[in-house]
# Entry
Amino acid sequence: MSAPVPRDLSALSVTDVREGLRSGALTAAEMVEAAYARIDAVESGVHAFNSLSRELAEQAAAKVDALAAAGDDLPALAGVPVAFKDNMNLIGTRTTCSAKILADYRSVYDCTAVRRCLDAGALPIGKCNMDEFAFGSSTENSAFGPSHNPWDLERVPGGSSGGSAAAVAAGEVTLALGSDTGGSIRQPGSFTGTVALKPTYGRVSRYGVVAFASSLDQIGPFTRSVEECAQVLGVISGRDPMDATSVDREAEDFTAALGQGVDGLRVGIVRDLCEMEGCDPAVRARVYETADALGKLGAKVGEVELPSTQFGLPAYYIIGPAEASSNLARFDGIRYGYRAKDAEDVMDLYLRSRVEGFGPETIRRIMLGTYALSAGYYDAYYGQAQKVRTLIIRDFERAFRDFDVLLTPTSPTTAFRIGEKATDPVAMYLSDVFTIPVNLAGIPAVSVPCGSIDGLPVGAQVMGAHFAEGTVLRVARAIEQVSAFDPVPPLVRDLA
Ligand code: GLN
# Structure
């Protein structure tokens, strides 16, 4: 006899769903039902989604159920409800980037990472809210209003992939994809108590994700467990002929090493970052406790410094906006999206479409980037920032000679209140001070919950050398076990 179907299907893991489908205990159609039932229950408070795609989800479920009924092998994400950040294209959906200028834009092709999830049997539930064009750390820069943190609806879920993080934390979906240019997967992961991975640059194709800063962007997963994070990474990674920066490597089973523990692994606490002014001492304390716990499991814990990372934030706010200003040049009111009415001539049309269609943070980034790239200033700003980038890469190379992974908090604080930092861009920018160096160096890093403060989750950031996701996830798995963090927020528990 098959096991009874639990009422809360969205609490099932990727593996539970596969086994349920295989044994006949549940159907993919029921998973779709469960996801939308949860959305009905919580979405008015959380606002994780910009749009829902029930028809696509039902079509995908019918295919999975047909496979299961025929007794065929089930693909890796069979029957699993998934959500995508609204900067990832999927035919049959709008891809708005939470921007007025793209509010009615309908995808004409599929993002490779999205397509890989769907080919692996996942059920596309909807597209998630974000900071406009991924500029931000709170989702407050969305043209469609902020998302709310399921742990405390008065607080932000982080950003820019805040909707994706909130959807997983609230159990609206089992997994979600986000994009991370300076921390936009890991920081919302930390704020919402989810596992959130930025892969090595080039590990996952960027084809079909609307570009922010092309030398920094990577797509990665949000999940409730490290094992699921490893499973999703296996699905989305690998060479894609449509992205020349995607790397040709053998497919890997990232789950294989998860159980190996951390005995003998060298873990470096990045002391200068952890001790930085502005890092909440309680957050720092959780991370130090985590390091101690890893030591008790046999890891060799030591300290390391990354002196050039203190210049990471200023370098990022030159390089990121420089690339963004160039990538956003295509939104001109002619080829995509919003077009200003009654323009006098073509220049007036460009200018007014952009001024009316972009929000204030987007305009700030375009101005910063255009200035930094302009003749006469290029060497002083952009050239200098690229040199800093090289120094940061060298810092990491040195550190990885002595350590297998490096550890910091993911963000200096827990989730802040909606509105708290909205008028102070620099305070907002600081919430990515630990995540940004990772993008500049192109290395992988995961945020894994390591405890909580006053009911709000705290994330530890585990960083590894290029393509060392296996080791990074192995350490994250150990942290998950020692911290025994319960990823279900009270909001969701109260529904039961
Ligand atoms: N918060 C950072 C920014 O505003 C990072 C954003 C991101 O990773 N997309 O640029």
Observations:
- The mean pLDDT is 96.
- The longest strand covers residues 445-453.
